[in-house]
Amino acid sequence: MDFMTDRDVQKYQEDGYVILDGLLTSQECDELRHRMAEIVEQMDVPDHCRTTFSTYHEEQLKTQGNADYFITSGDKIRFFFEKGVFDDKGEFIVPRERSLNKVGHALHAYEPLYKKVTHSPKIQGIAKKLGLKSPVVTQSMYIFKQPGIGGEVTPHQDATFLYTEPLGRVIGLWIALEDATVNNGCLWFIPGSQNSGITRRMVRTPKGTFPLTDFIGTEKTYDEDKFVAAPVRKGGVVLIHGEVVHRSAQNTSADSRHVYTFHIMESQSTKWSPDNWLQPTEELPFPLLYTD
Ligand SMILES: O=C(O)CCC(=O)C(=O)O
């Protein structure tokens, strides 16, 4: 039997998301977490985080450094921190393994364990079950949602950041490497909200200008009561339609909530917007999902 059933497909199509238990074993989750712990142990903290700045001009350079670091991260493994984890000399004020918000955006390409999971038979089976003909992997992230300080992710649609023509071609796969609960900041969705288009797009600004990205349009205000929690057991995966509205709360609990997440796009008859912050590069064109 397929890992994803017809009923799961129906639920995904109706609600814009579906939870599938048991994508990974507990041991596979621990191996991915262990590898990430090694990456964090060995990380070089980026200069724009480490250096102290005193003048307005220097502060601006720091902001520019931050923006450059982000916009060129699509084909690299880079580190993005929670707020308030460095002192004014750029030293950690929390343990380094508790400082990170996420690592992105090319674990799927450069880290063998992550690559293996991304292209695993179960993931390929999910894409086939959803009828994808020629899906590619566009980006990947490891999100930590640190105990006590893991920040909230405000309501959004992924197509705001990963825009295609036509819409409806991007799917997020969000794999819980630990139990994701209402207490430690699981995802919340507005079921069915994938059917109303998008109201906001993040676009690159013209070359040579700053900031490097801007928003066109604004996010709608959503009724809090419409959000439904999506707790997931360790090893489970949530499939996220590119236009479904979702969010996650701050993690105020004592538990972390590590996830590995990546996005795929049906590349057949789809135009990836050249205005998206994320662009395929010569070093890393978006890899095909279907491999042997
Ligand atoms: O992991 C989270 O808390 C939020 C992730 C999310 O919303 C996304 O990747 O689109």
UniProtKB/TrEMBL annotation:
Cofactor dependency: Fe cation
Superkingdom of the source species: Eukaryota
Coiled coil, from the record: none
Assigned keywords, A-Z: Iron, Metal-binding
Role of this protein: 2-oxoglutarate(2OG)-dependent dioxygenase that catalyzes the conversion of 2-oxoglutarate to succinate and CO(2) in an iron-dependent manner. However, does not couple 2OG turnover to the hydroxylation of acyl-coenzyme A derivatives, implying that it is not directly involved in phytanoyl coenzyme-A metabolism. Does not show detectable activity towards fatty acid CoA thioesters.
Family affiliation: Belongs to the PhyH family. PHYHD1 subfamily.
Name of the protein this chain belongs to: Phytanoyl-CoA dioxygenase domain-containing protein 1
Organism for this UniProt entry: Myripristis murdjan
Gene name per UniProt: PHYHD1
